[in-house]
Amino acid sequence: MTRGRSSESGLRRAPEDPPPFPPLRTCSSERIYSSPWVGLRRDLLELPGGGSQEHHVVEIPDAAVVVPQLADGRVLLIGQYRYVHQRTHWELPAGRIAAGETPAQAAARELLEETGHAAERLEDLPGFYPTNGISAHFAHSFVALGCARIAEQTLEPAERILCRAFTRTEIEALLDTGRVLDAFAALPLLYYLRHYA
Q1: Which strand (E) or helix (H) includes residue 109?
Q2: Is residue 143 within 8 Å of 190, Cβ to Cβ?
Q3: Which of 36, 80, 142, 174 is the most buried (most CB within 10 A)?
Q4: Long-range contact list for 26-32, CB < 8 A, 24+ apart?
């Protein structure tokens, strides 16, 4: 499933999206910060009733996230340390899409780098906007079927990642008890459980 696709063959028909509002006009735009990782932009928006309002936009390249399913049906999660909140928790392999890469290529690359696994095939899951109010950043989601370990992890210097396989029951328990704190993991896992498990 890709961005903007409303229904798929064999799925129940979903209600239509809400009718679109007219877009707000941008009066001016100023780049406040830029790096290879993230940018910050300040836009001045013209309001329908008159006047204007600032809107800060975080610019992050689109990403890919993948639910790795092993041949025995278990799902591989990564325990990843996150500097910003000093915690290690369960996540899925994910990362930004590099220039010239397709979302599926990025998903396969992240899977291999972070877990050492490769898939027999990748299939689409619904994507999502993880930071909808402040960024157009979009996450393309996949399920990687028939995963097998083919190499060692190739981690970046600051990455701390371990891998563990979980049963469907264990995944459901992690979700039910609120133990999957990373939205990049929780939402694709829920889609996966609805469509594949």
Answers
A1: helix 103-115
A2: no
A3: 142
A4: 27/52, 32/56
Q: Do 129 and 184 touch, CB atoms closer than 8 A?
A: no
pTM of this prediction exceeds 0.85 = yes
Closest to 26 in 3D by CA, of 9, 2, 47: 47
3-state secondary structure of 110: helix
C-alpha 89/C-alpha 96 separation (Å) is 20
Q: 176: Cβ–Cβ under 8 A, 6 or more apart, which residues? A: none
Q: Tell me if 124 sits within 8 A of 141, measured CB to CB.
A: yes
